[in-house]
Amino acid sequence: MANQNRLYRIAEEPMKTLKISHIGIAVPRIEEQLAFYRDTLSLPFVGVEEVPSQQVRVAFFSVGESNIELLEPTTPESPIQKFLDANQGKARIHHIAYEVEDIEAALAAMKRQGLRLVDETPREGAGGVRIAFVHPRAAGGILTELCEHPKAP
Ligand code: ZN
Q1: Which of 27, 56, 63, 76 has a 20 to 30 A CA-CA distance from 83?
Q2: What percent of the chain has pLDDT over 70?
Q3: Which CATH number belongs to the domain containing residue 68 in this structure?
Q4: Separation of 42 CA from ligand 1 center, angstroms?
Q5: How far apart are CA 73 and CA 84, in angstroms?
Q6: How far is the CA of 22 from the centre of ligand 1 (A)?
């Protein structure tokens, strides 16, 4: 058995993906969606945050261990507004985010595979979370976000 295991062992560790962190949904207006997510689905409303660098306002609802992230554009130039425009202004899924144990290791593993990344290095997201986007062309057509949450001290 030990010998067999050695056959399959690879030089580099595979990335460790822990769970779906959140699903990002582009919406024209967060307020118009509250009735469904907060009242119909009864999801706990975590809060709203404006992210000026991305020209979006973001609302979070928790679903078990994961979240729903509603993204509302704050300017006509917002990438989220352009995304909505491409869908006749209607809400639709924008990205899926996976929580990983080590974002640097995950990005390194993807680079070794020659995958196209939007972010070559992690950037700071909300709440001390470090994030990086993988290009849809490298991820089956779906914009994919990796996030690493701060480790408990
Ligand atoms: Zn996200």
Answers
A1: 63
A2: 91
A3: 3.10.180.10
A4: 21
A5: 9
A6: 6
- Cα-to-centroid distance, 25 and ligand 1 (Å): 9
Task: Report the separation in Å between the CA atom of 153 and the middle of ligand 1, taken as the mean of its atom positions.
Answer: 24
Residue 10 counted as domain residue: no
47 within domain boundaries: yes
5 in a domain, yes or no?
A: no
φ, ψ of residue 116 to 5 degrees: the values are -80, 125
- Residue 2: band (very low, low, confident or very high) from pLDDT cuts 50, 70, 90: very low
Residue 4 located in a structural domain: no
Which residues lie across from 59 on neighbouring strands?
Answer: 48, 70
Q: Quick one: which of 95, 50, 94 has its CA closest to 75?
A: 50
For the chain, what is the domain count?
1
Q: For residue 4, report the distance from its CA to the centre of ligand 1, in Å.
A: 40
* Domain of residue 72, residue span: 15-148
Distance 23 CA to ligand 1 centre (A): 7
Give the helix/strand (H/E) hosting 50.
Answer: strand 45-51
